[in-house]
Amino acid sequence: MADSNSIFDENSLEINAETKEEMERIEKRRFRHFIYFFSGQQISILGSSVVSFVLIWWITETTQSELMLGLASLCSLGPYLLVAPFSGVIADKANRKMLLLIVDALQASFTVVLTIIFMFFYDPNSSTNNIPFLIGSIFVTLGLRGAMQAFHSPTVGAMVPTMVPEKHLSRMNGLAYLISGVINVGGPAMGAVLLGLFGISLTMWIDVITFCIAVIPLIFIKIPSISKEARKERPPFFTEFKEGISTIKNIKGLFALIFIATLINFFLSPLSTLLPIFVNKVHGGNEDNYALVVGILQAGMIVGGLFMTFFKGFKNKIRTAIILVGVMFLGQALLYVVPTTINGRFWILGVILFLAILTNPAANVSLSTSLQVIVPKDKMGRVSSVLGFMSMAITPLGNFLSGLIGEFVPIGILFLSSSIIGIVIMFGIYYLSSAKNLDKEISKKIEEIKRLKDEEVEKSELEEEFIFETTDEPAKPLKPTLATESTSTVNSGASLD
What we know:
Blueprint: H1 2-63, H2 66-93, H3 96-121, H4 131-163, H5 166-203, H6 205-220, H7 228-233, H8 237-250, H9 254-267, H10 269-282, H11 287-310, H12 317-334, H13 345-357, H14 360-374, H15 380-406, H16 411-432, H17 438-472, H18 480-490
């Protein structure tokens, strides 16, 4: 009996060990493939960052129009919003590798067409350029690239949990955030240098070159496909949106908080839209000065993100997030008082924006952590859909209105007035609504989670103590008849010598 059972258990363990070893091997291979893909994507993103800087600066310098910058933002984000509700469903059903290849190839081809247009129809030394045609070409290209990005983002997002082991997810997210910050600093600097050396037509080829580099690992890696069952489990976007609205209504103060977050994006849009023309038109800066200001600003984002990776968080998360956003509004307002003729003014602009944007990661982390605590886990995706859609939907409108109003109102005054209105409305809604009570609810939830964890630990310790006590008892001998029956069952027909 003992020999037969030991053989059976060893076989089971051997099978489990082989299965586990195979799973670990597949997991390591997928993670290695993802690293290849991720590295190529960062190179491609750097190229796109360079071209985005170059196009925005060309529009700024050529048109000197706030409205044109607002329209550029609208053309870039508008198609993304229109396609986003359906692109996620397609990304789940289609072959992800093929979808990424098609989408990335189309984005690169759009840039190639725009580059050829500039090579044949734009002469920086001529005064007879067809500027409306060139600007229209840029707007169309931005729109088409934005629509393709609506497919690219959810596809990559869905790839991550299938290729990155859970134990590495946090590190990969942190690495992606850090590299993104570095690219946002280096992209404009590289764009300014290349624009000064080669001009806009040749500089735009950098996007095509980086795409070719990024596509090499994508061709050779294997991307796991999603199962049919998982595809069926995901409801349509509008179903998720309706369920998210219902969940938000059931949590007192949450709708006011999300409305505040949406308005924050709206009233900060003048800064994100008009900063290039503020540097160029108001302060007389060139592409190098603009790259300096943007680089210092993005450095603040990196430092703030690194701080939040080591800091445990704030006690009153919602109130802290509101105050930190107030600091961001203050930074936007202070740009108005920077003298336009003082030496070193671009460094002053950069430092103001550095200190303002330094608070952005802390505010975002506080808000996202609060939502994760007060929203049920099975509803979090739906609430995130609502928050993401509302915040993104308001951004193109804010960018367009910023450009339109900037045509009639000095940009500095627009920065100042938008900040004052934003602060008044934000604090007004917070203190006049149930949003101010959310910190208490969050504290209760955290205490409840801690209590449940303590109870689980205590229960686990009791179970271990019970198992330890029972294993100390001497084993009772089995009856001979049971041993014979068991042996004959497991190893029927075997000799029982």
